[in-house]
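We emphasize that the prediction below concerns an isolated chain of 309 residues; any contacts that depend on oligomerization or on bound cofactors are therefore not represented. The input was used exactly as deposited, without trimming of termini.
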Amino acid sequence: MRRNSLIAAMLSVALASFAWGQSNANGIGYFALEVPANVTITIDGDDGDWAWFDPIFTVGPDEMYEIQKAEVLDKSDLDVAIMTAWTGTDRDNRLYGFVRATDDTLVVTSDVFDDGWRDDDLEIITDANASGGPHDGDGESGTRAEGQQFTMHLPVPGIYETPYGGDGSWWLRWQVVEEIHWMDEFAESRVTTNPPGATTGSTNVTVNYEYSIPLWDYASLDGPDNSIRHENEAGQIIRLTYQLNEADNPEDRRTHQLATTGEDGASGNCDVCSEYTLLGADEYDRADGGAGTAVESESWAKIKATFSD
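Result of the prediction step, given as a token string:
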């Protein structure tokens, strides 16, 4: 029953073209896959434990939008592949992501955590219960009670190293109150490069961003015990946006921003965040040959093809 419902939903979305939501850069929304029961993802910046992920649901630049200048970026300048997964309350109830960015020139010069967006870095914007509206809700500026803009930035020893994520790459921004940084303490993150040791000025670099976080329906300044943690379930639609910042040189800093949303503004208001549907483990085809169903993947492949014609 679930498989048939999923296929019907996909087909209706395809027929309606961009009717699902103008906030989705691809016009139809995105999908996060439940981590299989026999898979454990280790946050180490290596995609070896993502071999199961159905590539049909990997998001690339053709399904994203450049929200600063509305320009189409050449893949030789910036290419990206995004995989998003989740676990439910029967496990650790977290959101997982692996983002691979291939950049012609790397720029990581910021020494201010809030200003990492001026460099090459990644923004992850969450609104777990899809309530929309300003991140602060009705609260004071910087509280981020209803939505969050997290960032991942390549750590640079002595220049950019946050206290969070395990490797100094994770930060909740922008201009948030100090008390709400308790959310950062729950994040696991790792940023790696190929070649290893790449830094500002390095060319033809692959940057791997990997993370794991819990989601929150409501975040209180008084900490997690006074907050409402989101419980992930198959079939849910959450608001989740990826924004990849692109800088070509240390002088000009950021020049472009490639996003899963179709317009600027998600960094402060989730009315324009993209949507992710949580698919259960029986609703996709495992790439590593594990148990799965091919019907959904084949249907989704046909739908995606209509948007690339």
